[in-house]
């Protein structure tokens, strides 16, 4: 049900994704404000939400929940679920249909401690039979594209990894994202882009490569090493919201116009989006998390990160940022 295009896009159950560049699901980061900012910078073909508990989803309000708030321009948007129980799937999927999701992603790759408690995310993958049943149930519950996000496994075991990926494909997954690290590997370790290539060659569905892409050159290297059909960017997108546009232009040859915004204007736009869309108590934490990554653009960026970090209100954080951009933003 998925097709690759020769111009670098893909079609999943009739949904066109072009360019094949996706914003990764990231807790506290991949919300409406960052999604909108990267869309405005251009070059993004697909957006993901941060991971959402399937069990809680039916009770969440899309007007007040920071996980579900969404602007009309944010599409195509795949909602990422973490789950362990089959019975949670149908109510969650019904809610996602109401919310006009363009696709549903199953988190099979995140090793966060809160998922360990539930046995979800990467902790599910030790039991492929269980995953098979969950995917089968999800597939039967929706007409939307279904995707899955995985890591490479507990250890480098090619046949186990490929059996797992072929199982996902066989159960009707339309798109696979592979984060090129083993389950317990930290972000400081170099991702194994060549192993993403091993998966890519073994399945017919499109594969997005993920992990460690912070520049156009790294995007090129990753595509070369993996042969993947597209890329998913996480931290690189929070550091450089314009990176999708650069990759779309320089790697895929697409005529993406620059937004012309300075870095300060991007920071201000992000803060304004938080203020426009999020309840008061949900803004500052998200600004702090974004600043942690965005500060990496500057030689003295630690000044931006720490002054925003110490702020007790949005207004104080914005004043501190303004001060930084005035005097130290090199
Ligand atoms: C703050 C943060 C939160 C994350 N949250 C999620 C998540 O909700 N779901 C998920 O599948 N992966 C999550 N990840 C992993 C990213 O999606 C991605 O796989 C990882 O950061 C590697 O890509 P990158 O090097 O481009 O950042 C998270 C990563 C970070 C840094």
Written account of the structure:
- The structure is a single chain.
- With 330 residues, the protein is an alpha/beta fold.
- The chain folds into 2 domains: 2-250, Aldolase class I (TIM Barrel), CATH 3.20.20; 263-327.
- The protein has 13 helices and 11 strands.
- The protein has helices at residues 32-41, 89-98, 113-118, 128-141, 158-170, 193-202, 216-226, 235-239, 243-250, 263-277, 284-294, 301-310, 314-327, and strands spanning 2-4, 10-12, 15-17, 21-23, 47-53, 77-82, 103-108, 146-150, 175-179, 207-210, 230-233.
- The strands form 2 sheets. It has an 8-stranded parallel β-sheet. It has a 3-stranded antiparallel β-sheet with strand order 1-2-3, with no helix packed on it.
- The site of flavin mononucleotide (FMN) has 22 residues, from strand 5 and helix 8.
Indicate the structural class.
Answer: alpha/beta
Low-confidence parts, pLDDT < 50 over ≥5 residues?
none
What does the average pLDDT come to? 96
Number of strands: 11
Please describe the structure with a list of short key phrases separated by commas or semicolons.
330 residues; alpha/beta; 11 strands; 42% helix; globular; binds flavin mononucleotide
């Amino acid at each position: 049900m998925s097709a690759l295009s020769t111009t670098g896009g893909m079609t999943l159950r009739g949904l066109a994704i072009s360019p094949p560049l996706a914003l990764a699901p990231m807790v506290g980061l991949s919300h409406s404000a960052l999604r909108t900012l990267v869309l405005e910078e251009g070059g993004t073909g697909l957006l993901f939400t941060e991971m959402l508990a399937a069990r809680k989803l039916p009770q969440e309000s899309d007007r007040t929940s920071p996980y579900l708030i969404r602007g009309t321009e944010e599409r195509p948007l795949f909602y990422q679920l973490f789950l362990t129980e089959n019975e949670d799937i149908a109510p969650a999927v019904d809610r996602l249909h109401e919310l006009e999701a363009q696709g549903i992603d199953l988190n099979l790759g995140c090793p966060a401690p809160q998922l360990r408690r539930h046995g979800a995310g990467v902790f599910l993958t030790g039991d492929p039979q269980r995953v098979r049943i969950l995917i089968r149930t999800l597939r039967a519950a929706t007409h939307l594209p279904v995707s899955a996000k995985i890591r490479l496994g507990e250890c480098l075991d090619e046949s186990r990894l490929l059996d797992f990926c072929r199982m996902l494909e066989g159960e009707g997954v339309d798109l696979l994202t592979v984060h090129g690290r083993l389950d317990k590997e930290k972000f400081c370790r170099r991702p194994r882009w060549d192993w993403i290539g091993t998966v890519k060659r073994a399945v017919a569905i499109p594969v997005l490569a993920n992990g460690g892409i912070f520049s156009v050159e790294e995007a090129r290297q990753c595509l070369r090493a993996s042969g993947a059909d597209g890329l998913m960017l996480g931290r690189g997108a929070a550091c450089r919201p314009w990176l999708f546009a650069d990759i779309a232009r320089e790697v895929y040859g697409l005529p993406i116009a620059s937004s012309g915004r300075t870095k300060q204007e991007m920071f201000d736009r992000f803060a304004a989006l938080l203020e426009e869309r999020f309840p008061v108590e949900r803004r500052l934490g998200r600004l702090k998390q974004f600043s942690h990554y965005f500060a990496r653009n500057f030689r003295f960026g630690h000044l931006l990160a720490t002054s925003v970090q110490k702020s007790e209100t949005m207004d104080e954080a914005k004043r501190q940022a303004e001060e930084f951009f005035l005097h130290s933003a090199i």
